[in-house]
Amino acid sequence: KLLIDVVTSTGSMIVVSNRLPFVLKRNEEGKLERTASAGGLVTAVAPVVINTNGLWVGWPGIHLEDPNEPIPESRPDDITPTAGLKSEKVVTVQVDPVKFDDYYNGCCNATFWPLFHSMPDRAIFRGDKYKAYTEVNKEFADRTFEALKRLVKSGEAENEPPLIWIHDYHLMLAANWIRQTAEEEEVPCKLGFFLHIPFPPWDIFRLFPWADEILQGMLGCDMVGFHITDYCLNFVDCCQRSLGCRVDRKNLLVEHGGRTVRVRPLPIGIPFDRFVELAHTAPKLLSTNQKIILGVDRLDYTKGLVNRLKSFETLLEKHPEHKEKVSLLQIAVPSRTDVKEYQELKEEIDQLVGRINGRFTTPNWSPIRYIFGCVSQDELAAFYREAYVGLVTPLRDGMNLVAKEFVACQINTPPGVLIVSPFAGAGETMHEALICNPYEIDSAAEVIHRALTMPEDERILRMNYLRRREKLNDVNYWTKSFLSAMGSLSAQEDHDEVG
Ligand code: ADP
Ligand code: G6P
């Protein structure tokens, strides 16, 4: 309700993201079908687009030979927030499949993803892949500008200039092109960008040979948002050192091209109440007397899965009293399976799980249960609810929504314990979690032991604080903070973040 009130005070919004909020697939009859994506971004942003009669520009997950082929509406049984997004409000970006592969796998996933997670040894730097990145960004920019003109022409943007909100590392060059064209053709708009992954320090960022172009691209916006202040400061620092911009580190401002660009920490939240509801309604899943330590991640090398498995092995070695009483349930979602690094990681995890299970399994117990695949939202909520420990130990992570979803679903008394890595954005904001350095295998094992033996009253106290913060700073609050940072909200619509 609050969000709906808020969006009436802003102009129409155009959201631009690599993925659309749904994926298109062809069924056996060759007809297109639409499946909603369930991520936090979609849940947060879809209502704003719908309520402002806005548009969403993105890639539909399939190459359409005929770019004018009509997009189907959502299915009648679709109850996700995306269901209300009419096909006419969606602008699909179509790129030649080879070029798209160079852009998505070759540059986004093989260069920016590892580099921005401060893992430069895993990054490849290739001019041909970056060229594809620039061309695909240009394509997104052109489609977005067409969408902008369409909105202005339709009269939807009479009171306020439309707000263009670009998302993530796939589209760091788009803003500048949109701004240039909009200025040339005198079409008013406001531009905002949000990066969902970390922004690295200057000595990592400058390894990218075309680093200046990336900064210039992002500075095409009026406001650039990151999850936490550290990433904002890294960005401001890079603008100063690479481009020689005048900056104000205290107020997070960057001067560029005669304009002042605002930089803001906007930590993303989750649809907290929806997860609580799911936790109340999801059927019981785990019939076991063992304490479950739960890991939920895309199968990605940034998530620290190898270290996590080794810490669990160390726990069983050092604290044999947990044998047959505790098991690790690891859910790993297949991700970016065309990239070699991800294929190799899958092999490594398979082998490690096999080795640890081979070493400790008894006739009545296996220490690790490993699910490689997607689970439904219901099942996910049940796992979160029934776990004794939530283990979120990435080597590096922009925020990590799993940590937040876990606390939302901890509705039972006494609750479980959350362990987070200090190298995730969530480790910066979820102060009452146990902090665990995933690189230090032995001490990580001790943190897990501490969680398993924590007194009830301490568990209750910590979880109450964690839940209170995530309920207040939920995903609606995040969207509202973005609008406020864009200057699209009046003062009385703002409220203080809970620290
Ligand atoms: P990342 O964005 O790097 O994947 P996050 O933890 O921030 O990491 O977000 C992951 C999202 O994917 C969460 O919203 C989570 O609910 C969802 N997710 C993770 N594992 C599964 C799974 N097995 N099935 C369905 N959704 C999942
Ligand atoms: C991270 C990124 C998102 C991306 C998601 C899934 O959360 O920040 O932009 O959509 O991973 O990755 P994929 O490559 O499948 O889109």
TrEMBL record:
One of its GO terms (molecular function) is trehalose-phosphatase activity. GO terms for cellular component: cytosol. GO terms for biological process: trehalose biosynthetic process. In the C-terminal section; belongs to the trehalose phosphatase family. This is Alpha,alpha-trehalose-phosphate synthase [UDP-forming]. It comes from Agrilus planipennis. The chain holds residues 4 to 502 of 806 of the full protein.
